[in-house]
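Work Package 3 (structural annotation) set out to generate three-dimensional models for the target panel prioritized at the project kickoff. During this period the team completed the workflow that converts sequence records into discrete structure tokens, so that structures can be stored uniformly alongside our sequence database. As a representative example, we reproduce one entry of 254 residues exactly as it appears in the project archive.
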Amino acid sequence: MSNRFLRRANADTIVEKLCTKVIMERGLIGPGDRILIGASGGKDSTVLTWALSRLQSVIKINYELKALHISNDFDGNNCNPNLGGFCSEWNIPYEDISIPVEGRLKPGREMNCYWCSTQRRTELLRYAIENNYNKIALGHHLDDIIETFFMNMINKGQLTAMPVLLAYKKYPVSLIRPLAYLEEKQIIACARELGILGSVCTCAYGENSGRREVRKKIAELCGSRSEVKRRILAALSYGPKDLLMESGDSQGGN
């Protein structure tokens, strides 16, 4: 897909085309799939929900969708009040469940983004297995994937990334990330174009300082050149192991 197209096309068209591209190239969706969307209420998962609904009539694959929001016990009424309405408009069943994320902390431990992410992922897996969903769709995008790769390399000394497709060995469920070819700025532009940007929520804890620091370093490395980020993403698929296509028992990143 040319840089000229990415510069000139409408934001919703860009999201549609790049989602279709990653789904087809990576085999993220197949006939008869029952896909559970992890709907946080933020811009990324809300655009993902819209895109997967839109693509049902585009990619000619018969699949089923449901959006699941997981409310927590530390952020008040943290469910986006507009989320259910968006899902209804896009003909996607929606459910909201509550879990004690902070209440599960062991004595002496402090609340953090990783713990919350792990608990929500656990509940998504449990719900998917109990209700016969074979795919879980998450709203991570190109910037998330690159940032996580550099964080793992710098902080853990590991060449591991956030896979676009993660097939669990222990569970009959796979994780998919259909926004993997999209930059955050493209998702923001789409949310603004759809009129949903001002209606999404953010976590009270925000993002951790380590991720912000890595984001600054990547910005210094790539500048405003989107093609550099896409080359980094492509590089993760070369070598003895394709880091974007994994099978295992880990939870595949935040």
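The chain has a mean pLDDT of 87.
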